[in-house]
C-alpha cells in the first residue's frame, strides 16, 4: 500500500463521569490513503463521531482523556500546539457535520462564512475570497450562486445548507474531508444527491473522505473501504466488496440484514439486532457483542483481536467463529431468516 | 377651595379630568404644581431631563463595557478559580442597594477629613456639560460608578450564562473546525448571538433609568434630575408633577423598547422582514 495520508494508532478516548469512566473509543487504529473514501459505520454511541472529532481535537471537555497517536504528514496531531492545530483544522483536514440546520452561524451571510474559512488559511484579500466563495457554491450546485452567496443560512433549504457546508469545508482544498453523518438530517432524495456530490468533488479536489454514518446504504456507493464500529472498537474492517459479500462479524450481518432491499422477496419483518448497545462504563467481558450475539459460545468470553481470519490479508474482524460456520449462520440473518 | 378645584378641573367627570390634564401637559403646556403655583411642570421636566440623561448615558457606557469584558473574561477563564471569583464579585455588586452604596461613596469622598486621594472630588451637585465639560465629568463620575455596579454584576452574569449556552451550538463547533482562533470564535461567533438577551435587558433598564428610575442615585448625590423631581413631588404629593414625570418616563421606556426591536433585527437577520 502507498504511504498512508493519515494513520490513527490505538486511539482511546474516555470521559470521566459521575457513574464512572466511559470508554467511548477503545483502541481504534486505521490508515487512510490519499484520495481514498473510508466509511465508518456503527450505531449511535459506537464511538464513530468521537473518534473523528478527536482526530481534529474538537472536543474540549475537561473530563476527556485521549491516548494514542494520529499521524498526519509525519507529525502526531495530538502533540501539535494551538497554532499548528488551527492550521490543520479547515486547512489540511476539514469536517462537515450532521445537522446543516444548526451548523452554520445564523447571523452571518453564507458567503462571508465561506470567505472566513478561506481568509483564515490563505493569504488573499476579501474580494478574492468572496469570488472564490461564489465559485465554490457553483461547484456544489447552488443555483444563482452570485446572488445566493449573500443569503443568510435561514434562506437556504437543508440540502442547500449541507452543500454550502461542503463548499466551506472544501474551500482550502483539504487533504482529508471528514463527513460526520452528512445526510442523516436530510430527505432520502437529497441524501442521494449529497452523496453523489461528495463522490464527484473528491475527484475534483483530490481529497480523501472519511464518511461517518449509521447507514450501510449510504457508504455502499462511494466507500473504498469500510470500518464497522461497535462499543468503541472496530469489529470488522475491509474493502467494501468483501464487507458486503463476505461479512465476517455477526454485528455486520445484523446491519446488513436490517437494510430493506428491493431485489429480494419481501419478508414479514426486517431483521433487527436484539438488545441494547452495551454500557461503555462496564462493558461485557470478552467480545463486546457477545450478549446480543445469537452465535456466542464459550470462547467469546475472551476478547478476539482485530486480525484477518479469512484468506484476504486486509479483511479484519473480531469474531471467534470459524469462517465456514459463519457462512451458514449469516445467511439466515442477512437474507431474511426463516424463509431460507 | 372650590375655585382651585375648578382651576384644575377637578369638579368635572373623570374622563374629562384626564383630557384636561393631557391638554394642559401637551398642548397648552401650562400645567402648574399644586403646591407651588409658580412652578410650571413642563419646563421643570425639560430642565431636569439633561441631568438624568447625563447620568444614565454615562453609566450605561460604563456598565456595557465592563459587563461585556467581565462576561467574556469569565468564559475565557472557565475552569479556573477566577471564573467563580468574578461571578461572586458580580453577585456582591448586584446585592448592594444603590442608596447604601451611594451614601458610603459620599462618606468616603465627601467627608471633611477624607483621604488626599479624593481631594479632587467636587462637592455634590451638577454642572451642565455646556458650561464646563471637565467639571461635568468630575461631578458625575461617582454617580456613574454607583449606578453601574449593580448593572455590571447583573449583565456580566447574564452574558456569561448565554455565552456558555452558545458554546455548545453546532455552529461554534463548525467555526472551530474551520481553524479559527479561540479569540475569533468567541468574539465573532459566540458574542453576537449571545447579545440578544443582553440587548433586551439593556433596553428595559435604560428606558426605566432615563424615565426617572435613577431616583435614589439622584437624591443621594443631589443631582437635580427627573428622579429628584419625582422624589420631591412624591414627598409633597404634588400630583401634576408626578403625572408629568410618569408620562415622561413612559415615553422613554416605549422609545427604548422600539430601539431594542430595531437592534434585534441588526443582530439577528432571521428577525428582519424578508
Question: How would you describe what is shown here?
Answer:
The complex is a heterodimer of chains A (340) and B (274). With 340 residues, chain A is an alpha/beta fold. Helix content of chain A is 32%, strand content 21%. In chain A, the strands form 2 sheets. Chain A has an 8-stranded mixed beta sheet with strand order 6-7-8-3-9-10-12-11, sandwiched between helices. Chain A has a 4-stranded antiparallel beta sheet with strand order 2-1-4-5. The A-B interface holds A 56, 58, 62, 82, 86-91, 94-95, 97, 99, 102-107, 116-117, 120-121, 152, 154, 165, 168 and B 79, 169-171, 173-182, 189, 192-193, 267-270.
Give a concise summary.
The complex is a heterodimer of chains A (340) and B (274). Chain A has helices at residues 48-55, 82-88, 110-121, 126-139, 145-148, 158-170, 188-205, 216-222, 240-245, 250-257, 323-335, and strands at 6-17, 20-32, 37-41, 64-72, 75-76, 93-96, 176-180, 208-213, 225-230, 233-239, 307-308, 316-317. Chain A is of the alpha/beta class.
Q: What percentage of residues of chain B falls in helices of 4 or more residues? A: over 70%
Strand content of chain A: 15-25%
- Mean pLDDT of chain B comes to 87
Any guess at the CATH architecture of chain B?
Answer: Orthogonal Bundle
Give the overall silhouette of chain B: globular
Give the number of helices of chain A: 11
Please give the largest β-sheet of chain A: 8 strands, mixed
- Helix content class of chain A: 25-40%
Identify the CATH homologous superfamily of chain B: MetI-like
Radius of gyration of chain A: 21 Å
Tell me the Rg of chain B in angstroms.
Answer: 23 Å
Low-confidence stretches of chain B: none
The H-and-E topology of chain B, N to C, reads as: HHHHHHHHHHH
